[in-house]
């Protein structure tokens, strides 16, 4: 069997500071705009459609230092100017857009995700959730503006999707899961439904948080996304037992390790079936198309010379990881989930955002560069490169070959 035929897409991002170097200028940088013209033209020449993230963990540093990032409401105006600029410039070259990368990560990583320069330990919940609100308004404004500029635009949110299971059947553990899960569903709820859910209003009230809404904010939030995109790497557990609340190694969003699952070298729980599960949860909840825009395995790869004298990486572990996850994607589609597409993280080795390491490699292409700065930057195709090429060529049919 195979997946339904679909377009060839590549996920990429526009660096805000290439377009507005400080972020608060009135006029964009023409050389930066031309850079992306060249990129998109090259993609389209080969029949590859760009899927573009507008803000991907790269808030201009000036906006962080001068305004404390998204804590400051002025960021909405700066973002709108940036968005209008790129939407108008690329309206005939890019159809698929994501407003913010892994927007729910701001709760755990306020600087990386929200450009907030106030140290996390000194950042109040009031300021943190006010920053979240500013991003919500900006995201909804991007949807509104985008649909005005080109009604054919498809604009989505992008969240970290991480299934959370109760560590035991104890009802207290189940309630603990519900409360933890609300921190994630909150972000997709606002994007997909256009308003703050009741459970988060309770949380805000109980924590003395009073979100300031400017006139018109509620109306802007009603401009909901066309689809839900997400990254998927792992699942976790929760428990109400304080003695067992030991955060798993590498778990960006918290959580207790699942004793039934193996983990990557960085402690991320490997759970292919969790992908099918979360796809069903998201689709049942929102009835909007889904797009898996990140999924992959960070691992330490060993560059070798094969029997043909070619340098490569025998990364069967990565092949197995991706194969098992893609099979679960097919299962979810058969369950009735509407899926727009799937893009891995990532096609080529790069610096990992969570650890700032090069040795944590995700790509199908090995880059000869190391954490200490040594290396030639030469590139070599891994075994997974050829395997994934066959997956694409066969429209997924090779996944089921014995």
UniProtKB/TrEMBL annotation:
The keyword Hydrolase applies. InterPro entries: GH, Glyco_hydro_1, Glyco_hydro_1_AS. Signal peptide: none annotated. GO terms for molecular function: hydrolase activity, acting on glycosyl bonds. PROSITE patterns: GLYCOSYL_HYDROL_F1_1. SUPFAM superfamilies: (Trans)glycosidases (SSF51445). Keywords: Glycosidase, Hydrolase. The keyword rRNA-binding does not apply. The active site is at 294 (nucleophile). It holds the Pfam family Glyco_hydro_1. It is an enzyme of class 3 (hydrolase). Its EC number is 3.2.1.-. Belongs to the glycosyl hydrolase 1 family. This is Glycoside hydrolase family 1 protein. It comes from Paenibacillus farraposensis. The lineage of its organism: Bacteria, Bacillati, Bacillota, Bacilli, Bacillales.
């Amino acid at each position: 069997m195979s997946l339904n035929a679909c377009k060839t897409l590549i996920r990429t991002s526009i660096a805000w500071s290439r377009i507005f170097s400080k972020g608060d200028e009135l006029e964009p940088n023409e050389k930066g705009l031309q850079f992306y013209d060249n990129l998109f033209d090259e993609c389209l020449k080969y029949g590859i459609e760009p899927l573009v993230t507008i803000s991907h963990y790269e808030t201009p540093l000036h906006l962080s230092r001068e305004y404390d990032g998204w804590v400051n409401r002025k960021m909405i105006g700066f973002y709108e100017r940036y968005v209008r600029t790129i939407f108008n410039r690329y309206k005939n070259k890019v159809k698929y857009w994501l407003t913010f990368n892994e927007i729910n990560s701001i709760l755990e990583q306020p600087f990386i995700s929200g450009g907030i320069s106030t140290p996390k330990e000194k950042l109040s919940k009031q300021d943190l959730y006010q920053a979240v609100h500013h991003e919500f308004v900006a995201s909804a404004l991007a949807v509104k503006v985008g649909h005005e500029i080109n009604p054919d635009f498809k604009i989505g949110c992008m969240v970290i999707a991480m299934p959370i299971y109760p560590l035991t059947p104890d009802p207290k553990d189940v309630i603990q899961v519900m409360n933890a899960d609300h921190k994630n569903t909150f972000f997709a709820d606002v994007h997909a439904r256009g308003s703050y859910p009741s459970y988060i209003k309770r949380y805000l009230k109980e924590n003395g948080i009073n979100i300031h809404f400017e006139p018109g904010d509620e109306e802007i939030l009603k401009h909901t996304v066309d689809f839900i995109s997400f990254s998927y790497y792992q699942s976790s557990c929760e428990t109400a037992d304080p003695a067992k609340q030991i955060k798993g190694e590498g778990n960006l969003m918290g959580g207790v390790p699942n004793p039934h699952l193996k983990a990557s070298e960085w402690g991320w729980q490997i759970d292919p079936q969790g992908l099918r599960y979360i796809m069903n949860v998201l689709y049942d909840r929102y009835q909007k198309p889904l797009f898996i825009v990140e999924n992959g395995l960070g691992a330490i790869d060993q560059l070798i010379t094969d029997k043909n004298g070619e340098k490569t990486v025998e990364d069967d572990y990565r092949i197995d990881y991706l194969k098992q996850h893609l099979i679960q994607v097919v299962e979810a589609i058969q369950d009735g989930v509407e899926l727009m597409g799937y893009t891995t993280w990532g096609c080529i080795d790069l610096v990992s955002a969570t650890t700032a390491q090069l040795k944590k490699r995700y790509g199908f292409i090995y880059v000869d560069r190391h954490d200490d700065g040594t290396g030639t930057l030469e590139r070599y195709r891994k075994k997974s490169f050829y395997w994934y090429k066959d997956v694409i060529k066969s429209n997924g049919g090779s996944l089921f070959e014995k």
